[in-house]
């Protein structure tokens, strides 16, 4: 039986999602915990690989269960063997042709940026930080230029393995919650480091270092070398993956998790 899982994790202590020879990844931790319940090795496939230090509240994975277990065993049972920074939210049987990555038609990322003179304390590792006063309206106007189908080569990491840099951006918005500036991006798919590179360039515009129209110029130039540096991984969250309704998966909970609401400065 193929089973899909909803996963959340604090990526601070992990070397990223993807399995590593020496362990230390979120995938390594999850597969080890699943093996405890299955009694044999289990491999998982995720909707979107995240880098070291990147978090997720809405990651989706699938695996082929080698044994029959109640769904509660694939959630509460597996959680017993997971590190505290990783938790399964739900498990759902799916058709054999479901694929966590290739069946998805959209992914949503959120970037949390602390904008104040002092660096984060409680939010260390969970928010990015910029001490310059940022002009929200300028960043909002620049973000609006990202919506639609574009070649995002200017925001693509050198080692990106995506077949094409052309992606459909369905939403790109920026808003403020007290001392936090929140960046929301939803697209058909994302390139490696794309969100962190977008945030870096939007911050440059918010600082007044570049004009609002610079974002459109970067899209047209398709040259990673002329855009801003890659921003910190600390504030990046994969908050939702979207699938067609016929797969029967829970809708992604893209609102701010209550644990973040209470821990982060407002």
TrEMBL record:
Residues binding substrate, per UniProt: 109
Ranges for domain Pseudouridine synthase I TruA alpha/beta: 8-102, 142-244
GO biological process: tRNA pseudouridine synthesis
Reaction catalysed by this enzyme: uridine(38/39/40) in tRNA = pseudouridine(38/39/40) in tRNA
Purpose: Formation of pseudouridine at positions 38, 39 and 40 in the anticodon stem and loop of transfer RNAs.
Family of the protein in this entry: Belongs to the tRNA pseudouridine synthase TruA family.
Protein name: tRNA pseudouridine synthase A
Protein's organism: Propionivibrio dicarboxylicus
Gene field: truA
């Amino acid at each position: 039986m193929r089973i899909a899982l909803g996963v959340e994790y604090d990526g601070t202590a992990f070397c990223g999602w993807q399995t590593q020879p020496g362990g230390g990844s979120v995938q390594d931790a999850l597969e080890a915990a699943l093996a405890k319940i299955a009694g044999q090795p289990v491999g998982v496939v995720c909707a979107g690989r995240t880098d070291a230090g990147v978090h997720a509240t809405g990651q989706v994975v699938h695996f082929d269960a080698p044994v029959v277990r109640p769904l509660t065993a694939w959630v509460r049972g597996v959680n017993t063997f997971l590190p505290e920074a990783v938790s399964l939210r739900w498990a759902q049987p799916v058709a054999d042709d479901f694929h966590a990555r290739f069946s998805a038609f959209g992914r949503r990322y959120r970037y949390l940026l602390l904008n104040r003179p002092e660096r984060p304390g409680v939010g260390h590792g969970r928010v990015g930080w910029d001490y310059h006063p940022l002009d929200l309206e300028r960043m909002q106007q620049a973000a609006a230029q990202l919506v639609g189908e574009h070649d995002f080569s200017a925001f693509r990491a050198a080692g990106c393995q995506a077949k094409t840099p052309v992606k459909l951006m369905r939403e790109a918005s920026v808003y403020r919650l007290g001392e936090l500036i929140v960046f929301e991006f939803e697209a058909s798919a994302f390139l490696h480091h794309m969100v962190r590179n977008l945030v870096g360039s939007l911050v440059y515009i918010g600082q007044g270092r570049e004009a609002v129209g610079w974002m459109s110029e970067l899209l047209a130039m398709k040259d990673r070398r002329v855009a801003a540096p890659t921003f910190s991984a600390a504030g990046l969250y994969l908050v939702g993956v979207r699938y067609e309704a016929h797969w029967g998966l829970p809708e992604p909970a893209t609102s701010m998790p209550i644990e973040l609401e209470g821990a982060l400065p407002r």
